[in-house]
Amino acid sequence: MDKLFNTDLEALYRAAGKKKNRPTVDGRHSLRDFQALWVNCLVVDGEVIVRHHDGTTKNKFRYGLELIDPARLDWTKNGELANGNRIKMGVEMDGDNMPVAYWILEKHPQDHLFDARSQHRHQRVPAEFITHSFLSELPNQTRGVSMLASAGLRAHLINQFEKAIVIGGIVASSKVGFYKVNQEKADDYGILGNYIEEEGEGGDFTEDVNDDASLVQKVTPGMFEQLPSYVDGVDTFDPEYPPANFEEFEKRMLRGMASGFGDQYHAMANDLEGVNYTSSRTGELSQRDVWRELQNFLSSELMEPHFERWANLQLLNNAVAIDKSKLSRLIDSESYLFVPRGWSWVDPLKELKAHETALALGLTTRRKLIAESDGREFEDVIDELAEEEAYMRDKGIEPREPNVKAVTEVKDEDEND
Q1: Separation CA 372–CA 30 (nearest Å)
Q2: Same domain, yes or no, for 103 and 188?
Q3: H helix count then E strand count, the chain
Q4: CB 304, CB 338: distance < 8 Å
Q5: CA distance linking residue 402 with residue 385, whole number of Å
Q6: Are 125 and 181 members of one domain?
């Protein structure tokens, strides 16, 4: 391995991904931010469309990325072409169902809200400049399906239920009552509800009239009023609030949503009630497998193609100082690899003991353990350790060997107690 070349190349690639160097053609995102947005689009839209701009003058690396809203890939564009290709939901394919071009709307379909003159014109972009990524569920699938689709109905039901709860709370806090009228007494006063007959004229609605007191429609705290003699009492309307099954309903809906997302319920709903160490650990392990699959998908669909395209352009870019011959050999050998971040165990000490046993039995390597824990490279960790110890000795401090056995023994005694 060429340590010096690798270090220079990594530093150059990191610099190319900084926001100030405009890795995206709009200049709004760093490469790290672009990755986060890419994953967000994959989850929400079910697909990600990236356009590659080779030779752009927006940065010194002559390469830029553009994220295209999937709504601009016209799903209404369908039909057969004279050359034998066919367009399905905006994707032009040859006889082998291989994408050869994408029919992209020049403007977003909703741009007419801001520009009345907006017209739906297409731009045919060859497939070599487009990376269209989605999780395929069927053979010859053309477009992706949102990961939110399976949970969308449940989310809508929760939203409707919560609206009903709010309305119920407003109604419950506004008590409603109905006067019970003694009709015989009301007839003596010529009263029928609020209908009062006036002498010499037809009946008409007017203010409430009674012999003893006015009918009070609104009350304030501490108020006492006498009801008219023709009123026998009051019936109240008191709805039950809140409903007893609301919490259970919401939990069931959120559990279903979490299953649709491939997420853990207690993490997504922020509900740690009833979660213990064992259940949390079991769920965490299955959850990490989902994240690893997404990491691998991101690496294969975005990062590796991006690096290969970027590196090929740097071979022709005199503004970049890098050993072109070594870079060419690296591209040809396809030996580059993106290692994502990892996770430490729920109980770090038990994990270390398991790693120690696996190393002693020859079942794993330090390189694999380091990559799985935090995504770092084995050589970088060893170099850092050597530099750290050399610096300590230079300052007159002798590094001490960590007594892992003593620590584990103390931990074991605590557990036995």
Answers
A1: 25
A2: no
A3: 13, 13
A4: yes
A5: 13
A6: no
Contacts of 215 (CB under 8 A, 6+ apart): 179, 208, 227, 228, 231
Q: Which phi-psi region, left, alpha or beta, contains residue 208 (left: φ > 0; alpha: ψ -120 to 50)?
A: beta
With CA atoms as reference, report the closest residue to 185 among 158, 212, 205.
212
DSSP assignments along 322-344, one per residue: S-HHHHHHHHHHT----------
CA distance 343 to 401: 25
Candidates 241, 55, 116, 256; CA nearest to 166 is 241
Let me know whether 16 and 73 are in one domain.
yes
**34 plus 89 within the same structural domain:** yes
User: Could you tell me the two tokens for 232?
Assistant: 């026998």
Residue 261 lies in a domain: no
Residues 73 and 193 reside in one and the same domain: no
The answer to whether residue 370 is domain-embedded is yes
Residue 231 lies in a domain: yes
Q: Considering the entire predicted model, what is its pTM?
A: 0.71
Taking only the tens place, the pLDDT of each residue in 158-217 is 888 888 888 877 777 766 666 677 767 666 665 544 444 444 444 444 444 444 445 656
Residue where one domain finishes, among candidates 237, 265, 290: 237
CA end-to-end span of the chain = 50
What's the structural domain count of the chain? 3
Edge to edge, the sheet with strand 130-133 lists: 63-68, 48-54, 130-133
Query: What local confidence, expressed as pLDDT, does residue 156 receive?
Result: 85
More confident residue, 348 or 123: 123
- pLDDT of residue 271 exceeding 60, the answer is yes
**Predicted pLDDT of residue 207:** 44
Which of residues 148 and 127 earns the better pLDDT score?
Answer: 127
Domain range spanning residue 356?
342-417
Q: Which of 111-115, 193-197, 369-373 has the highest mean pLDDT?
A: 369-373
Beta-sheet strands, E only, within 89-143? 91-93, 99-105, 122-126, 130-133
* pLDDT band with cut points at 50, 70 and 90 for residue 335: confident
- Please say if the pLDDT value at position 327 is more than 60: yes
